[in-house]
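User: Sequence recovery, please. Input:
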């Protein structure tokens, strides 16, 4: 009988100490939302070999990901958005937004429109992985059937 009581007491102390060591859960507040990422702007190339998507932070710079579905290659393009594949799936054109910190600083300093950071155009060559950048571009357009033009 004494042995049974001691065994029950030992098990109770052991589980009680394990429970006491469990980390306390912290309450969820607004600072946790800032690190959450949102998935959006998905696009698939005409040949089905490439996928683009954008990961956006609640408060921060987004990232455009170009993923090779067949090859497994992946290109991470900081602040990229509005990606479009050429018809032959050799290139991806996208807009590069300025860094959020620079935009906020320019607004705080009340810089005029010409001094504020501007969007750029990026063109990713999917065969080599190189990015060509053209500054001060607001928008672009690719034709649906030919890959030799970019407006």
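Assistant: Recovered sequence (151 residues):
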């Amino acid at each position: 009988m004494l042995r049974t009581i001691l065994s029950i007491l030992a098990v109770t102390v052991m589980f009680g100490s394990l429970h006491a060591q469990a980390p306390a859960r912290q309450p969820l507040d607004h600072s946790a939302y800032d690190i959450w990422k949102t998935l959006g702007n998905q696009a698939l190339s005409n040949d089905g070999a490439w996928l683009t998507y954008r990961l956006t932070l609640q408060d921060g710079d987004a990232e455009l990901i170009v993923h090779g579905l067949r090859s497994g290659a992946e290109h991470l393009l900081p602040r990229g958005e509005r990606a479009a594949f050429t018809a032959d799936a050799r290139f991806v054109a996208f807009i590069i937004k300025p860094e959020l910190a620079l935009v906020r600083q320019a607004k705080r300093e009340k810089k005029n429109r010409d001094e504020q950071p501007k969007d750029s155009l990026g063109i990713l060559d999917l065969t080599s992985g190189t990015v060509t950048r053209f500054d001060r571009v607001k928008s672009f357009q690719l034709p649906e059937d030919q890959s030799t033009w970019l407006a």
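The mean pLDDT is 80.
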